[in-house]
Structures
1.
Amino acid sequence: MQVCLKCVLNEHFLGIRFDENGICNFCSSADSTDKQRSIRSKHEERFKQLVQEHKGRGSYDCLAAYSGGKDSTYTLHLLMERYDLRILTYSYDNWFQSDTAKRNIRAVLRNANVDHLTVTPSFESIKSIVLTSLSDDIYPPKALTRASSICTSCISLVRFAGFRIAIDQDIPFLVFGMSPGQAPMATAVVKTNPRMIKTMQAALLRPLTEKLGDTVRPFFLEQRHFDKAESFPYSINPLAFAEYNEEVIYKTIAEYGWRKPDDTDANSTNCLLNALANQVHLDKYGFNPYAYEIAELVRIGCMAREEGLARLGEPFPADQIEEVKKKLGIV
Ligand SMILES: [Zn+2]
């Protein structure tokens, strides 16, 4: 099987082409390191300026999605230390948070001393969302190059639940802790508006409601939200413009009491569903749903290629997959 000699993407990755040197089109079309650095600092400057303009508008300056994973924990640290914001965090409990993730959430919230909300859909809702995402082709393959279908469903719920809360509470910044490879640079600082979010929501909500009826409705925006154009937040992804160094990240978040989990697979620090979601995705499409993220981290010099390949080559924990299947009633 052909694998790009610069990153870690293989020949099954959607839209991939290799040149005569064995380098993929994603690598050859990537911006130079200098250009990336300059784009990053522009985004950072813009965010700093927006913080000055919008800070102090209401009870909270920002709503931060907090999963208890390493990236969102580090993002929380940046929001506090670098931008001095009043933060409301929220987490999404899909009934498959690892025990370590739950412990980490409690420890970090306590040490960071921030307010928190938990969004917990009913177990039956989650079960039907997960089973539908597994068995039906509810998303086009193009939508699944950076995440499995289960992840895509959960991330949608997290994202739109965040928009609901931010709009309802008039919070100017909605912050996500996606790593540089999970989210493109273009998502670093985005002023959202009803039209944009309505289009995004329709693309995700339509396939889910076709299968599940109104089960997922309460987590998405309603017309009353779209009518409040002035309350649509800036969507911010600080890790797209902050420096991303896993060693620094682990060291920093340890100071908040965060501990590295030993109960999830190699690519997730918080969700037990991940192993099953990744296995199904790999079997179906021929590439690990984390491949794009890891390829990007390798490309921008945040991870050695050998380490990226090793991470992608790790087998998914079979016992975890079995346990999750049992909980979902899949025999
Ligand atoms: Zn490549």
2.
Amino acid sequence: MTEFEALEKRISVRSYEKRLVDPKLLGELSDAVSEGNERYGLNLQLVSTGDPDKPAVKLSGAMFSGQVNAALLLVGPGDDLAAEMLGYWGESLVLRAVSLGLGTCWVAGTFDRDSVSPALREGDKLWGVIPLGYATEKVPLKQRTIRAAIRAKDRKLELFLESDRSASSLPAWVRAGVEAVKAGPSAVNQQPVNIVYRDGLVTARLWKENANILKFNDLGIAKYQFQVGAENAGVRGFWNFGDGGEFIVD
Ligand SMILES: Cc1cc2nc3c(=O)[nH]c(=O)nc-3n(C[C@H](O)[C@H](O)[C@H](O)COP(=O)(O)O)c2cc1C
């Protein structure tokens, strides 16, 4: 599965089988975790109990069913830049996990913080967790209803874009990037990131003033999603971090 196919397939999985994740897959993810930690000064931790009866993290029963034996603990410095980098690299790990056949969900709120024991450096905080497991084939009605209710707040594609050109006259790769942003996850589905396209320049900005404290995670996630969408449409590039940061075409 390509990274873009993983992006198209990804949803927040809230119903897991009680089945051990293949250790080989965790090994592949672990390399990517270390790479991101080194590059961005993060302290993400991949944990696995190796026991189907022992959950790696206790997820709230109000939102989730089943259990996972592996998870990614989202640990890093508490500032906005680290939050954005964590979103960016975390989303790359989510897509990698999906391409390996795993189900994932960004979880910042609805889990028991006392059920995990991350190693924290000075200044680190636990931003959240990403459960890693196998999605049940049949999604229970409750979890289907939760997702439908949250995503019902989706904005129209045009509302993700600020430009002097209409969405239909955008370069195809910019449009593909904006579509990928729309398809991505965001905390409480706030979708607080817009892509700005003016004078041939692409930037990303937080438009929602009252968005929650996770908006910088969302900014990093949106940037990663854009990059994968644009690349699938033939244009490679990388982002400058920061609110208003520019997408630099390679
Ligand atoms: C930073 C962040 C935190 C999130 N925290 C939670 C959470 O605590 N509980 C939960 O059920 N979903 C959580 N989500 C998942 C969002 O609700 C979900 O991404 C959004 O509703 C869009 O749905 P989708 O991911 O299925 O496309 C979080 C997502 C992000 C990006």
3.
Amino acid sequence: MSAGVSTGAQLLDRIAANGVVGAGGAGFPTHVKLASRADCIILNAAECEPLLHKDKEILWHYPEQVLAGLTRASELVGAKEIVVGIKGKYAEVIDRLGPMVPPKGRIVPLSDTYPAGDEFILVYDVTGKIIPPGKIPPAVSCVVINVETAWNIGADTPVTEKFLTVAGAVRSPVTLRVPIGITVAEAVGLAGGATVANARALIGGVMMGQLASPDEPITKTCGGVIVLDAGHTVIRRYEAPWKTIARIGASACDQCSFCTEFCPRYLLGHPIEPHKTMRSLCFVESREPAVIGSQFCCECNLCTMMACPEDLDPKSVCVHGKRQLAAAGREWEAEAHPYRAELQLNNRRIPTSRLIVKLGLARFKNEGPLLDRRYEPERVILPLKQHAGAPARPVVVDGTQLEKGDVVAQPEDGALGAAIHASIAGTCRVTEDRVIITGS
Ligand code: SF4
Ligand code: SF4
């Protein structure tokens, strides 16, 4: 091996040492994902959450770095084919990428629908293959990586920064590139601040996000912050307690099955029918749904936010059922149930524009240009769990002086996880679940 050329094992070690994880979802450690073998690697640039723009902005501003990371990833998994899946409406980005795509690569323009970025839908749209229920893309010889993940592989340095779009009820919707560990309030401030008095924030997006307090840190997996008024329907839905959801669901569900008819996993032929999970609320006094298909819910929220004419929350019922099934150790037996895509799959894709209207987001600017200004916070908060797997173990103590990029936490030996690095220089304080760095 000549100097400057890395073996696959060395490259995987560097990706692990740099703490690269899936930047657009659960934060699966990238060095583990890229240890798979696959014929096809797909760059997931679908970005279907309403009002988010960060993947498109990264691709526009840093196409070489993203494609360099994607090419390295393709070599690691032994892919014969590289695919960039991006919405066809981003014609300028596609034109820019076109001449740079490697010889074994192609760009697949995707529909502007939700959830185009769901891995199962993306793999189906690109290859025509259906990932079996409960499996992951390598089951059909595919690996899917997020745009920012590819950017991080291309950077080949410790992951200390995060791209995210801040949108909704803010003065200037924007995509930021900021140190990991700044707070939600700081991110909203960089977008000009909230335009409503009783602002609430959703981390990750309107459809698949989570309510976040202003002092919550931005982590490696946060793709966006959406600000809405506390009285907004979407916020009220996220705040509804489980007991209310279950009680109203049991009495008001008319079993129209619209939730099932819209469910993207059902339409792929997976054995999930949310209306049956809703029905189960009536059968058990405890209101604990346990219909076996619930475990295949991808939590896209389409059934709740778009389909249900009664404004019920089948998604939360399925998620609750999924947890019940996991706790009971109940699993679906794949061989017993053949699957195939429903003929209606293409007719039932939900245009993002319709979703935006239905969610009451049409009054917000649907844009997020990358802010070309670096932000230097006085303090960052680095949770020890920003990835799938076990929390990382701190390798620093109170008072340790750190430079940007120094390791602050590592996965326990043999545990699934990712390294965490200082995103600013400063002095650290270590708590049970986080490392806090105050700038020097
Ligand atoms: S769409 Fe709503 S009312 Fe219809 S079956 Fe599903 S949960 Fe019940
Ligand atoms: S959230 Fe609803 S529509 Fe989405 S996968 Fe789950 S059951 Fe299906």
